[in-house]
Amino acid sequence: MSDEVKRHVQEVFSKNKQAYVDSTTHKKQSDLDAIVEWLKPDPSHKALDIATGGGHVAKALSSHCGTVFATDLTKDMLQNTARHLNSQQNIEYVVADAEQLPFLDDSFDLVTCRIAPHHFPFPHRFIEEVARVLKDNGKFLMIDNVAPEDDQLDEFYNRFEKKRDYSHVRALKISEWEKLYRKNHLNVKKHLTRKKTMPFPDWVRRTLDHEADQRAVEGLFKQAPAEAKRHFSITEENGHVTSFAIDEYMVVVEKHSS
To answer: What SS3 state is found at 137?
Structure first.
């Protein structure tokens, strides 16, 4: 991971470590239930949760798997999550870069990564690493925000995310993810896309402390082209943006190296 981006990620997530434990978006139970349903983990499985953040996925997996490794680039975040999950005896915590995982080849039955890859500077390295540490027939489940296939909407979406959070690198299009999977012998088994409604005030305050910065992001939404306002379902009340919706992608792929 490039050093400057890595530093930005660590700054943002150290500052907001408890916000990610408490975030309604990140601890959404229906998401966590779906992850378990799609992966069908069992006690013989060793799982890896990359960029664990508040540890919600690691906790959900730990009730079913033998061992879960929860990794994050940000030590402060991981330390806080370990304290929060101290009753879960089968989770190991490892400070790790998603693009350079400190694990041997063919180590894990299951790998997960949720609402994080848009922070990774080199997504191709991340997927190469996932494929490397997965056992043959192992499964990788990813949930992340994705950019629309339309180039102008893609540009608008990534611009407002970056303005709100300087550790955001880029949300990829689904077509770009699928290309990376194919290249790394990861076969798509199941996927869905859905709209995710975001409460604007909570979303913008999670990473921006200053009102002027928050207003600048709000200004982008208010001045958005009509097509973008439609696509992202931007709603306003009394001159303020109240909510918007983004595209989220959930996918399970299976490794077949031959």
So the answer is: strand
218 to each of 33, 75, 131, 161, 215, how far by Cα in Å?
Answer: 33, 31, 39, 11, 5
* Cα–Cα dist 143/120, whole Å: 14
Whats the size of the chain, residue-wise? 258
Cβ proximity of 113 and 50 under 8 Å? yes
One DSSP character per residue, 62-114 reads HTTSSEEEEEES-HHHHHHHHHHTTT-TTEEEEE-BTTB--S-TT-EEEEEEE
- What is the number of alpha carbons within 13 Å of residue 85 lying toward its C-beta? 30
Instruction: Provide the 3-class DSSP secondary structure of residue 128.
Output: helix
Q: What is the pLDDT of residues 104-116, one digit of tens each?
A: 999 999 999 999 9
What pLDDT, in 10s, does the model give residues 16-68? 545 554 554 455 688 899 999 999 999 999 999 999 999 999 999 999 999 99
For 119, other C-beta atoms within 10 Å of its C-beta total: 23
Say which DSSP state 172 is in: P
Strands 240-255 and 134-146: antiparallel
d(CA 40, CA 64): 8
Measured CA to CA, the distance from residue 70 to residue 51 in angstroms comes to 8
Give the start-end residues of each E strand in the chain.
46-50, 67-72, 91-95, 108-114, 134-146, 186-199, 235-237, 240-255
Q: Which H helix or E strand runs over 38?
A: helix 29-39
